[in-house]
Amino acid sequence: MLMIAPIATQVSAQSSGPAETKQANAPDQKPAFEGQTRAPQPAKMPSLQKTVVADDLPQLWSMEILPDGRMLVAANAGAMHIVADGKAGPALEGVPKVASAGQGGLLDIALAPDFETSGMIYFSFSEPRDGGNGTSVASAKLVESGGKAALENTKVIFRQMPTYDGDKHFGSRLAFGPNKELYVTVGERSDKEPRVQAQDVSSGLGKVFRIDTEGKAFEGNPFIGKENALPEIWSYGHRNMQSATIDGEGRLWTVEHGPKGGDELNLPKAGLNYGWPVITYGVEYSGGAVGEGATAKDGMEQPVYYWDPVIGPSGMAYYDSDAIPEWKGSLIVGGLVSQGIVVLKVEADKVVSEGRLPLEARIRDVKVGSDGSVYAVTEQRGGGKSQILKLTPGA
Questions:
Q1: From residue 294, how far is each of 155, 212, 260, 320, 357 by CA, in Å?
Q2: Quick check: 1 pLDDT over 60?
Q3: Which of 45, 88, 251, 366 could form a disulfide with 81 if both were Cys (CB 3.0 to 4.6 A apart)?
Q4: Residue 277: CB partners within 8 Å, gap ≥ 6?
Q5: pLDDT computed for residue 16 by the predictor
């Protein structure tokens, strides 16, 4: 792969105290347990080289690394491209129309677990519908012939319902578990009227779904056979999840956008309620309390970790390589607001340190390459260009 404008910058972070030092938006709120927020920085952050490996790309939302090292990327406006030699190829045919206003668009991409033999991919997008829109998941086969790539047999396999006429909080990330189960994270559509449906298991707003590759409820889901409940639901009470990954034990982790000072890391478990909008850390963007201002309630789960002020989470990867030993066993989260990546060292399902690597750009997605390099997708506000950065161990 051609390296575009290598900058070979040494990027590192200083330790001592928590990474976040600004005043909280909700200073009177207290964590439910020690280490739930503002964990200490790690004793050592690695020295890394940052290289721009692709430039002048359309505004991207996600990327997947293909087996040969090229990248399949989703442009927010509704096109999919293969990136090779630092540049985006032609838009692939076979991508459905997307509702790209506001926070909508072409969203996440996931390669099927058997991609090398099947060529199948899965992607989420905000789908235009009668009366509004909603997050949908489609499958397709990636076919290359004569130097051209296209999607064939594109089929919508799952639709978040109900449809809503809005342009916010679509989510969405896709993550395959170890048994070919596909986790789909979605938002609760933001507005006060629909967002309460995050608490309603007959609604698809504010949920994690677990489906098979045909879009059906995965065997063993907690709400199968329950009256007035969607069988595809895995967990509920979520706000707007734009980060998801599978850890070394095959478990799903998510990070969701909270209100003003309420981003949260969760380890979603079957059938459990994660509280939004009844309980949350942080406040409304107006500065007022969310609901009754509660941060805890019986029957509702606490986040593993939360941020106040927020990092603006988008994209997430589990780091299981020896290439950057300081990060092995960590969760790596892209930060839109924090403009870099956030590295969470997790032990016994608790965050023991939070390191921040400034990249001076909004980070929309994060992936780990086969050699242990970390790739970060940047974005600019207002439909600007994206880059793909590569982080490798420095001298």
A1: 42, 36, 15, 36, 32
A2: no
A3: 88
A4: 188, 195, 196, 198, 199, 239, 290, 291
A5: 67
Tokens standing for residue 24 = 């909280």
Secondary structure (DSSP) of 109-126: EEE-TTHHHH-EEEEEEE
Whichever domain contains 337, its CATH number is 2.120.10.30
- Residue 1 belongs to some domain of the structure: no
Taking CA atoms, 55 is separated from 2, 75, 84, 167, 372, in Å, by: 11, 13, 11, 28, 21
Please tell me the predicted confidence (pLDDT) of residue 380.
87
Rounded Cα gap, residues 17 and 85, in angstroms: 41
Kindly report, residue by residue over 334-392, the tens digit of the pLDDT.
999 999 999 999 999 999 999 999 999 999 999 999 999 999 999 987 778 999 999 99
- Helix (H) / strand (E) element for 55: namely strand 48-57
Whether the predicted pLDDT of 6 surpasses 90? no
129: three-class secondary structure by DSSP: strand
Task: Find, among 266, 242, 59, the residue nearest to 168 by Cα.
Answer: 242
| Residue 108 belongs to a domain | yes
The domain in which residue 80 lies consists of 6-393
Q: Is residue 276 part of a domain?
A: yes
User: Average pLDDT in the 67-94 region?
Assistant: 96
* Per-residue pLDDT band at 395 (split at 50, 70, 90): low
Residue of 81, 169, 238, 257 marked active site: 169
Percentage, residues of the chain above pLDDT 90: 93
Give residues with Cβ within 8 angstroms of 227, minimum separation 6.
Answer: none
Between CA 20 and CA 77 the distance in angstroms is 33
**Domains in the chain, number:** 1
Catalytic-residue membership of 81: no
Residue spans of beta strands (DSSP E) within 170-284: 174-176, 182-185, 207-211, 233-236, 240-246, 252-257, 263-266
Answer yes or no: is 349 within a domain.
yes
Of 8-22, 238-252, 310-324, the least confident: 8-22
What pLDDT does residue 10 have?
46
